[in-house]
Amino acid sequence: MAMLRAVRGMSDVPPERTPAWRRVERAFQETAARFGYQEIRFPMLERTELFRRSIGDATDIVEKEMYTFEDRNGDSLSLRPEGTAGCARAAEQLGLLHQRRVRLWYQGPMFRHERPQKGRYRQFQQFGAEAFGMSGPDVDAELVQLAAALWERLDVAGALTLVINNVGGAEDRRRYGAALSEYFMSRAGELDEEARERARGNPVRLLDSKDPAVIEVAKDAPKLEDHVGEESRRHYREWKAMLRALGIAFEESPQLVRGLDYYNCGVHEWVTDALGAQNAVCGGGRYDGLTAQLGGRPTPAAGFAVGVERLVLLAEALGKEPPARAADVAVLGGEGAEALAMAARLRRRRPDLRVVADLGGGKLSSRIRRALESGARAAVVLERADDGPAVRIRAVDDASRSVTVAPGEAPEALAAFLGAPDA
Ligand code: AMP
């Protein structure tokens, strides 16, 4: 029988890579907490309607990338393709948004049926930060500041560039969509049926089409920036001034539209040259209309999401991953539960150390080899001398560096042998 394999685009993280993941996860959790963001958890499965209303019916994500199915009651459910919609739904449902300001973060798997390649998967992890109840550009600046602090902490700041744009308010975008649609339909003869369909439904998507005929027509299309109203312009100007005041560099790109319908005004992405085609590590923006679109109270809001795989890949590409050691100390030898009891005593004395009991017996040389492979620096060898049990503490990679003590003295002797805990 053929061995069963994982679903395409859904990867396992092998144990030697989980330390790199944990480093990134811990950095995000702690950085978000330091900015006063609190963790929220919400389901991976939601009503399909939630994503249709928020991300938008005519977007790539909803049209062709969601894992959607009917459950046993005949309800249409979808695995979440992103976190903002579920986060906003949960915050509203939990009553967190009523005349309050809340800062939230979440972390977890998202699902999109995209064509897998390096940095693009069908199950991937996101961290998100979302701020509700604050309408000024200062919170947009704070979100960028939070992401920048995370890059700083992970030592990847030098490889990331912030790109921003103003996509206008909902009304601006409606007018722009109508103008675009009219423009593309005026040149319908140059477009195929699929493109004409887009021109009627969601003409903005034609702007990043790969079809040469569409690219040609799109060259003279109306520009979004000509349709952005004064209020959005002011908000965006103030946001940029704050970023400058904070010393956060950015580039502006009219091409940055983000593929989700709920954004308005300032949007942003952090991109890198170090990862190839999938160059966006983080993206977000303001989405003041979202909660009302979901049937809740209108609430100003803004947020971003980080792709964890891409951030881990970036840290690896820059050589920032932590060592993937399983153990610091190996305990070998002894009879019955002696090794387990000694390991427990050592762990009590030095909670910072990973102490692994080498179980299952075998020759000393193969046990030392296993200890080396586990990354352990010290081996604690339980021996039986003529005058009773003894413990030899030795460097795993150098038998000549060793001390022999009575079992009761082993925890202190090990602590002295290894020196102070790592910072
Ligand atoms: P989005 O809101 O779609 O821009 O997603 C936010 C971030 O999630 C992106 O900047 C990526 O880092 C990450 N991301 C999105 N889609 C995928 C995917 N299919 N595989 C891996 N990471 C992804």
General description of the model:
This protein has 423 residues and is an alpha+beta fold. It has helices at 18-34, 48-54, 60-65, 84-93, 137-154, 170-186, 193-201, 212-218, 230-245, 290-293, 308-317, 338-349, 364-374, 410-418, and strands at 38-39, 45-47, 68-70, 76-79, 102-111, 123-132, 161-166, 251-252, 264-271, 280-286, 301-307, 329-333, 355-357, 378-385, 388-395, 398-405. Strand 9 and strand 10 (280-286) form a beta hairpin. The protein is elongated and about 100 Å long. The model has no long low-confidence stretch (mean pLDDT 93). Adenosine monophosphate is lined by residues 82, 112, 114, 119-121, 124, 126, 280-283, 305, 307, 309-310.
SSE string, helices as H and strands as E: HEEHHEEHEEHEHHHHEEEHEHEHEHEEEH
End-to-end gap: 50 Å
Q: Report Rg.
A: 28 Å
Q: What ligands does this structure carry?
A: adenosine monophosphate
The portion of residues assigned to helices is: 25-40%
State the strand order across the main sheet: 1-5-6-11-10-9-7-8
